[in-house]
């Protein structure tokens, strides 16, 4: 019986592995079709590779007039990750790097989004591009009332200067961070007036600091976290592809660094990320544990003010949800 159970588990594992490999191969096949379409200047095929949820189809006529054959184009893929009906890919062409988000529509993989960089993209960012499924904390209704708050640094700051509060917890899927402001935060995508809106005039209490996330176990690692409000320019375009109107709006963003390079960035902007949300007084962030190099829990995690001992709060030991 024991041998039978082991054999069944082994077969199930290999079946799952084979299915994942087939899904990755299907995503790579779309990537190769994109490469071929750009090499030959086949605009119709290139546009057909994109999801109906992307904005490519809205500008199909403009894009068709812009596509030109580029026989020398070559795309390389360094990492592919598939989870259910979503997939991510990190690649490169010449001296440019790209990340791509795919979704499965009617059984076929389609490109949902694409971003470019002139510096190499961290492979761990793929777990933010295709985030984990809901973890136990969010499945339990995100009971923040049970999570302790960080202790403000009263030695250096008067109580009226500590106008926000910090909480954090984690489960096998995510590190959850909540910033609580003293007043209600403007909703994401709130319109701002003026050609160059002033953050001070947006009414956002944005005096929380850049933070450090330390993972001391195994090979110690440290990350920098910036949670911020930003102005996004929403433009519309004419038939020639030129911007004919602009509208400024408020977006909230999360940027995670390791050393001097960005691991990933997410926001409530045009392609809204589930890793960033704002409601009432609360600015909520989710960081996939794998982007921090954490493959298993429990794991020691600590959050600090990047300003060190003179920072606005004492070092905060993040507790595993449920413990």
Summed up, what is this model?
The chain is built from 5 helices and 15 strands.
Overview of the molecule:
The protein has five helices and 15 strands. The protein is α+β, with helices and mostly antiparallel strands and 323 residues long. The chain has two domains: 120 residues, Nuclear Transport Factor 2, Chain: A (Roll); 185 residues, no CATH class. The strands form two sheets. Strands 5, 6, 7, 8, 9, 10, 11, 12, 13, 14 and 15 form an eleven-stranded mixed sheet that branches. Strands 1-2-3-4 form a four-stranded antiparallel sheet. Strand 2 and strand 3 form a beta hairpin. The radius of gyration is 22 Å and the shape is globular. It starts with a helix and ends with a strand.
Which terms would index this structure?
323 residues; alpha+beta; 2 domains; eleven-stranded mixed sheet; four-stranded antiparallel sheet; 5 helices
Report, as a whole number of angstroms, the end-to-end distance: 36 Å
Structurally, the number of domains stands at 2
Structural class given helices, strands, pairing? alpha+beta
Mean of all residue-level pLDDT scores: 87
Number of strands: 15
H/E element order:
HHHEEEEHHEEEEEEEEEEE
Q: What's the oligomerization state?
A: single chain
């Amino acid at each position: 019986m024991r041998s039978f159970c082991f054999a069944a588990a082994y077969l199930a594992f290999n079946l799952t592995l084979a299915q994942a490999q087939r899904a990755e191969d299907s995503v790579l096949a779309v990537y190769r079709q994109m490469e071929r379409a750009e090499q030959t200047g086949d605009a119709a095929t290139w546009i057909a590779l994109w999801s109906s949820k992307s904005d490519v189809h809205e500008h199909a006529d403009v894009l068709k007039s812009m596509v030109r054959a580029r026989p020398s184009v070559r795309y390389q893929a360094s990492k592919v990750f598939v989870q259910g009906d979503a997939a991510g890919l990190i690649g490169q062409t010449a001296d440019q790097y790209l990340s791509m988000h795919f979704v499965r529509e009617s059984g076929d993989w389609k490109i949902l989004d694409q971003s470019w960089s002139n510096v190499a993209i961290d492979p761990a960012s793929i777990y933010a591009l295709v985030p984990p499924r809901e973890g136990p904390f969010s499945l339990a209704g995100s009971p923040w009332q049970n999570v302790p708050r960080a202790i403000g640094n009263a030695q250096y700051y008067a109580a009226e200067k500590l106008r926000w509060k910090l909480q954090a917890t984690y489960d096998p899927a995510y590190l959850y961070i909540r910033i609580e402001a003293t007043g209600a935060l403007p909703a994401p995508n709130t319109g701002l007036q003026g050609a160059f809106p002033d953050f001070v005039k947006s009414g956002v209490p944005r005096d929380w600091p850049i933070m450090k996330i330390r993972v001391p176990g195994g090979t110690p690692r440290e990350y920098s976290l910036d949670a911020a409000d930003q102005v996004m320019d929403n433009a519309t375009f004419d038939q020639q592809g030129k911007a004919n109107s602009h509208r400024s709006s408020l977006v909230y963003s999360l940027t995670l660094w390791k050393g001097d390079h960005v691991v990933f960035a997410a926001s409530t902007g045009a392609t809204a990320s589930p890793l960033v949300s704002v409601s009432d007084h609360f600015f909520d962030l989710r960081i996939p544990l794998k982007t921090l190099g954490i493959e298993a829990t429990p794991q020691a995690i600590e959050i600090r003010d990047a300003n060190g001992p003179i920072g606005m709060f004492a070092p905060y030991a993040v507790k595993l949800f449920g413990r």
